[in-house]
Structures are given as C-alpha cells and as structure tokens.
C-alpha cells in the first residue's frame, strides 16, 4: 500500500485508512505492544524509502503519518472499549457481591478474576465522606492506589458503591482495613469508616458489608464518637433495639415525664446523654454542654424529680442509661409512638 501510494503520489483511501484502524483493533485485542507496532511501521517506511527515488520522501512520510495515525486510533479505540467492558464487568460483580444477588458458586468463580478467594473469610470496610465518592474521583482513586501500593496483591478489592468507598480484604488481614480506614479518614478530612466482622464464604462478604453499613447508620443515630467504628464493638445496640415495642415502652415509661419540663424533654435528655457519655463525671458533662457545674447539677436534680430515677444512684443509673440509649435508637421523642 505504501509503495503504491508513493509510486502514484496519491493519498490513502478511506477504505485503506479504515483497514488500518481495524488492524489496530486486532493488534490491541491480541495484546501486542504498541511500541513494537510503531517500530514495524517505521521499518516498512524505511524499506520503502530505500526502494524509492529521493523525490518521493516527503510524500511517503505524509502517507506514513496518516497510516500510523489511523492504526493508533483503532488500537486506542479497542483499548478504551476493553477498559469500559472491564469496568462494567467489575461494577456488575461488585453489585452481585455486595447484594448477594448471584448464584454463590458462580460468584466465587468470578471473584477469582478480581483477586478474591471467596472460600476464605472476608471482612468489609465502608467509608463515607462529606461528599459522595464516585468511580474515578481523585480521592477514591488515591485511596485505592495507596492501599494497593502498601499491601500489593493480597486479595484486596477497593470499589465505590452508592457514594461510599468499599474495601474487601481477607479476614485474617485486619491491618488492610485499618490502613484503608486511616487513608479514607485523612483524605476526606473528617469522614467515617464502618468495619464489619470477618465471615466465611461468598455470603460472608454481604454479611460483613451490611454490618459495616449498620455501624455507620448506628453512629449517626447514636452520635457515636470516633472516625472508625467496628461492628463487633456495637453489638449491644442491635440487641437493645431488637424488641422495638419493649424499648418504646421502657423509654416512654422512664423518660416520658421529662415532657413536663419547661422547654420540653430535649435539654434534660441532652443532659443525660452528656452525663453518661462522660462516665457520669459532672464537670466533664458540664463542659460538654457549655454549662456550669451548678446548672448541670440542677438539671440532674430536675430529672430525678420528674422521673423518680436518680442519675447519680447506681441502682437507678442502669435504667436511665438504657432508656437514654433507647431514645437515640428510636428517635424519641419525635420518632416514638407514644
């Protein structure tokens, strides 16, 4: 083709350029390195040049430029298509993995392609930031690159899901999720990470993922401190909330009288939360609420008067604290049925 174009002085036809693009696509599909292919084109140009008079050199290089440009266009197009297909397959796998919507046997087979061995136990960490994560976002890409650079090929999967960043790692490698949580917190300047417990088998990933999501949701409702929340440390809360009707009865019977307070139950309920969150240390609770110790003491006495439960008395403290936790769990008073 090159020799004919040089002999006649013509340009490459549309069909010839399209043929170059198709050859580029075939080369990309075959996995041939582009550098070697460019070298082959230049070698063909050099051979043609040696067999042609010097007067056609300028025309020949113009023809070579268009031929190589069409070839590379086809090569890059094939690579882009392959990347999109790989991303689509990865996204579909992640959806099936985290929602358990696929046959578990087939899911395990597909997992090997992405570096996971679902016969082992896995744990999942879920990070959420002030802004949603998305595929290709610099923050998400930077965290993924940092984790993979630190731990290499250790059967780790990092992906985005519904605006959050998810990390799946072997259950016997907690240091991976710890490092992921550290990077995610630093990158989002105040984000939060929930970490589920390790569970075996393909369904174990779904279970751990749901625990991590539950830890994040619970942290929001319970105003839990700390950037990293381990589901194993929060198991008491689902137990308390398992019988919602019983919890509502406890909250209403114990804290319902606080509605009689001036300004409603909110300030006194906040006082209970602060008092218990600080280990029943009045000075710390007062500082947390920006109150004087005298004002805090007055509030505690008011709670005692209204509820007939003394926050400072160990015999009453457990009932009050359980009711205060329950109030957060069910969103009392706004979320109660009483």
Give an overview in words:
By secondary structure, this protein is α+β, with helices and mostly antiparallel strands. The protein has 3 domains: 2-85; 117-234, Alpha-Beta Plaits; 243-330, Arc Repressor Mutant, subunit A (Orthogonal Bundle), CATH 1.10.10. It has helices at 2-8, 14-30, 34-50, 57-99, 104-113, 138-151, 174-188, 202-222, 236-241, 244-255, 266-277, 282-289, 293-307, 314-330, and strands at residues 122-128, 157-161, 164-170, 192-195, 228-230. Helix 2 packs across helix 4, helix 11 crosses helix 14 and helix 12 packs across helix 13 (293-307). The model has no long low-confidence stretch (mean pLDDT 86).
What integer is the average pLDDT? Answer: 86
Radius of gyration: 32 Å
- What separation lies between the terminal Cα atoms? 86 Å
Count structural domains.
Answer: 3
CATH class of the largest domain: Alpha Beta
Strand order of the largest sheet: 2-3-1-4-5
The CATH architecture of the largest domain comes to 2-Layer Sandwich
**What is the CATH topology descriptor of the largest domain?**
Alpha-Beta Plaits
- Write down how many β-strands occur, each being a DSSP E stretch of 2 or more residues: 5
- The number of helical runs is 14
Give the ordered list of helices and strands. Answer: HHHHHEHEEHEHEHHHHHH
Estimate the global geometry from the Cα principal axes.
elongated
Q: Which structural class is indicated by helix and strand composition?
A: alpha+beta
The major sheet is characterized as: 5 strands, mixed
Q: How much of the sequence is in beta strands?
A: 5-15%
Spans of at least 5 consecutive residues with low confidence: none
| Residues in helix, % | 55-70%
Family: Belongs to the CdaR family.
Pfam families: GGDEF_2 (PF17853), HTH_30 (PF13556)
Domain CdaR GGDEF-like: 100-218
Protein name: Helix-turn-helix domain-containing protein
């Amino acid at each position: 083709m090159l020799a004919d174009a040089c002999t006649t002085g013509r340009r490459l036809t549309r069909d010839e350029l399209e043929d170059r693009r198709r050859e580029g696509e075939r080369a990309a599909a075959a996995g041939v390195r582009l550098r070697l292919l460019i070298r082959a084109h230049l070698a063909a140009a050099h051979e043609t040049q040696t067999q042609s008079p010097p007067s056609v050199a300028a025309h020949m290089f113009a023809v070579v430029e268009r031929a190589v440009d069409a070839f590379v266009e086809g090569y890059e197009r094939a690579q882009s298509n392959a990347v999109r297909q790989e991303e689509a397959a990865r996204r579909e796998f992640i959806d099936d993995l985290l929602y358990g919507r696929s046959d578990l046997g087939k899911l395990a087979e597909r997992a090997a392609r992405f570096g996971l061995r679902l016969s082992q136990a896995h744990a999942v960490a879920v990070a959420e930031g002030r802004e949603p994560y998305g595929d290709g976002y610099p923050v998400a890409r930077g965290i993924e690159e940092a984790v993979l650079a630190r731990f290499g090929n250790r059967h780790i999967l990092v992906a985005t899901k519904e605006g959050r960043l998810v990390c799946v790692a072997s259950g016997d490698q907690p240091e991976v999720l710890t490092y992921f949580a550290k990077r995610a917190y630093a990158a989002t300047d105040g984000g939060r990470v929930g970490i589920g417990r390790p569970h075996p088998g393909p369904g174990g990933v779904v279970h751990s993922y749901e625990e991590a999501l539950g830890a994040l949701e619970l942290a929001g409702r319970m105003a839990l401190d700390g950037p990293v929340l381990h589901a194993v440390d929060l198991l008491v809360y689902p137990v308390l909330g398992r019988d919602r009707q019983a919890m509502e009865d406890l909250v209403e019977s114990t804290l319902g009288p606080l509605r009689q307070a001036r300004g409603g139950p909110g300030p006194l309920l906040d006082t209970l939360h602060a008092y218990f969150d600080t280990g029943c240390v009045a000075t710390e609770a007062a500082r947390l609420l920006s109150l004087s110790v005298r004002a805090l003491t007055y509030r505690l006495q008011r709670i005692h008067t209204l509820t007939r439960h003394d926050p400072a008395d160990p015999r009453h403290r457990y009932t009050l604290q359980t009711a205060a936790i329950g109030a957060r769990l069910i969103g009392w008073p706004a979320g109660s049925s009483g």
